[in-house]
């Protein structure tokens, strides 16, 4: 007869998360929404692909809205009230995901665009000799 060892930090034991960070990565092909706590540990995530969208429909604003709603639904149940939003990428789902986050009832501290921008980029290849 073995004793069960309680898991510390398990999601199932009703851990309350009052504040978190919502990361939205919007590419042209898919939108991924990840919700983390302040320390960066993933609490919930969703993407347009896991919501059942396939092919070109994954890059649509409606798919991004559905993915954001799915990711946020679980953290609202865990008690999240405030969040920061980090948006990355050039995709169509940026605005739709942000609208879905605002509609969920979570107070947003700030919204930041963290899309990587090249400062002059890579060196171009040599010109072709004829």
Automatic annotation (TrEMBL):
Q: Name one GO molecular function term.
A: rRNA binding
Provide this UniProt record's keywords sorted from A to Z. Answer: Chloroplast, Plastid, Ribonucleoprotein, Ribosomal protein, RNA-binding, rRNA-binding
Gene3D superfamilies for this protein:
Ribosomal protein S11
PROSITE patterns associated with the record: RIBOSOMAL_S11
Which GO CC annotations does the UniProt entry carry? Answer: chloroplast; ribonucleoprotein complex; ribosome
Q: Where found?
A: Plastid, Chloroplast
Q: Which NCBIfam families match?
A: PRK05309.1, uS11_bact
Q: Which family does it belong to?
A: Belongs to the universal ribosomal protein uS11 family.
- Its protein name is Small ribosomal subunit protein uS11c
- Which organism is this protein's natural source? Dichocarpum fargesii
**Organism ancestry:** Eukaryota, Viridiplantae, Streptophyta, Embryophyta, Tracheophyta
This chain is encoded by the gene named rps11
């Amino acid at each position: 007869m073995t004793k069960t060892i309680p898991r510390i930090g398990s999601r199932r034991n009703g851990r309350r998360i009052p504040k978190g960070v919502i990361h939205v990565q919007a590419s042209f092909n898919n939108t991924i929404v990840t919700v983390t706590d302040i320390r960066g540990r993933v609490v919930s995530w969703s993407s347009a692909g896991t919501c059942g969208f396939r092919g070109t429909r994954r890059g649509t604003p409606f798919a991004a809205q559905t993915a954001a709603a799915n990711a946020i639904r679980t953290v609202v149940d865990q008690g999240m009230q405030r969040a920061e939003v980090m948006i990355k990428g050039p995709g169509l789902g940026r605005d739709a995901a942000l609208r879905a986050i605002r509609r969920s009832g979570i107070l947003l501290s700030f919204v930041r665009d963290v899309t990587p921008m090249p400062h002059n980029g890579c060196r171009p290849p040599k010109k072709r000799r004829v």
